[in-house]
Design goal:
By secondary structure, the chain is α+β, with helices and mostly antiparallel strands. It folds into 5 domains: about 5-85, no CATH class; about 100-110 and about 330-415, conserved putative lor/sdh protein from methanococcus maripaludis s2 fold (Beta Barrel); about 130-245, OB fold (Dihydrolipoamide Acetyltransferase, E2P) (Beta Barrel), CATH 2.40.50; about 250-325, Efflux pump adaptor protein, beta barrel domain (Elongation Factor Tu (Ef-tu), domain 3, Beta Barrel), CATH 2.40.30; about 425-490, Copper binding periplasmic protein CusF (OB fold (Dihydrolipoamide Acetyltransferase, E2P), Beta Barrel), CATH 2.40.50. About 20% of the residues lie in helices and about 40% in strands. It contains 8 helices and 31 strands. The strands form 7 sheets. Strands 4, 6, 21, 22, 23, 24 and 25 form a 7-stranded antiparallel β-sheet that branches. Strands 7-16-19-18-17-20 form a 6-stranded antiparallel barrel. Helix 4 packs antiparallel against helix 5 (about 185-195). The radius of gyration is 42 Å and the shape is elongated.
Length: about 500
Amino acid sequence: MTLPKSHRARLALGAAAAAVLLGLGFGAGRLLDGSEGATSAEQPASGERKVLYWYDPMVPSQRFDKPGKSPFMDMQLVPKYADEVGEGGGLQIDPAVTQNLGVRLATVETGSLPSGLTATGVIEFNERDVAVVQAKAGGFVQRVYGRAPADVVPAGAPLADLLIPEWAGAQGEFLAVLRTGDPALIGAARNRLRLLGMSSELIAAVEQSGRVRNVVTVTTPSGGMIKTLAVRNGMTVMAGETLAEVNGLGRVWLNAAIPEAQASQVRVGQSVRASLAAYPGESFTGQVTAVLPQTETASRTLTARIELANRGGRLRPGMFAAVEFGGQSRPALQVPSEAVIRTGRRALVMLAKDGGRYVPAEVQVGREAGGKTEILAGLTAGEKVVASGQFLLDSEASLAGVQARPITGAGPTQKAAAAPALHRSQGRVEQISPASVTLSHEAVPALQWPAMTMTFKLASPQLATGVKAGDRVSFAFEQTPAGPVVREMTKAGA
């Protein structure tokens, strides 16, 4: 039987639709099974992005070889594509994006890093310049001169008039002995007056006038501020009783609080410059006279005692000061301080590699001064670090699971620097101990050092044997992260 043409067309369309539905159902089954997705990830079709692994953005360090649900969070794993990671690892950032982020690079370089220690301090009295005024004998206060605590007085300022009855009888006997003309008796009587506490000036006045003087004026032995005053009109005083304390103001102390971590940068004799809010634009110079042995447990600081000249009494105890500690500069591998990311447990920098790649690197930092931070380990001279925008890059690297380069993973230049050549010079020994030597040495052209005086550590106490201050020596030293260390030292001409 022959079907009409219109019936044949309808049958053909129905067969085609059935085939399409069958194909869709088979494809859906493959997708639900998950095998199709895994095959496409392992062997991407031409033109598709290659997946390296899957990860949970909340736990980026854990990687998975298949897609699926995260075992840590209620979310799907995210693919990491090959074009997101540059060659050699690290974080790949498009140059246009880095420009929009304001990423700025800096070069790791060796330069002179000054001693940039700064601290805060408070002006205090010089406790070594204290005079105590005492009664030389018991008596009565006849008159006071209107002094009060905190008054500033000159040397010899009168405090009170004391009537001392005991002196009247001793002076009368002395005048009687004078009339005898016996030198031995006169000398003995004069010594008795001295033992009773009379000054040589008072004894001479009694001898010249021939009259008893049992009222004495108590004066200050030195100028300064009256710290305590315990004498009042009409009171009775005992021998040896303290009447007043006077603290000199010619020199004052500046007690500076030094963070415990920077205590090694402070030494006795170090020059200091202080500036006070009371005198803007003016600085006062002094020296460290002592580093007190006790640490403040609450603030974890040590106290450096600095002595300052107080011309005109302008420096008043209680004033606040900003302190800059001077020191000799020394070569150091350094980066801008803003490039260092401190996490609390470690310090990181973002290294800039070729091709727009960025790799976090762990570093060991040292001193900081003038906007520069010393790098003791983890970097080599010539490497590029990110000085601006590094926090955004570090956050992205953490989310992407990029591991930081450990300190031991620095380049070959740094490994070679672990055993540098010895630098040789000659100089004069200024001071020496089994642990260190201070030398006035000649210039060291290899390090671009001028002739100067500086302190070196000694690699061995035996190097100090037979060497004393004033000797001329030839020496060889090694540059280490902790400073120069003398490895060889002999007397010149030996």
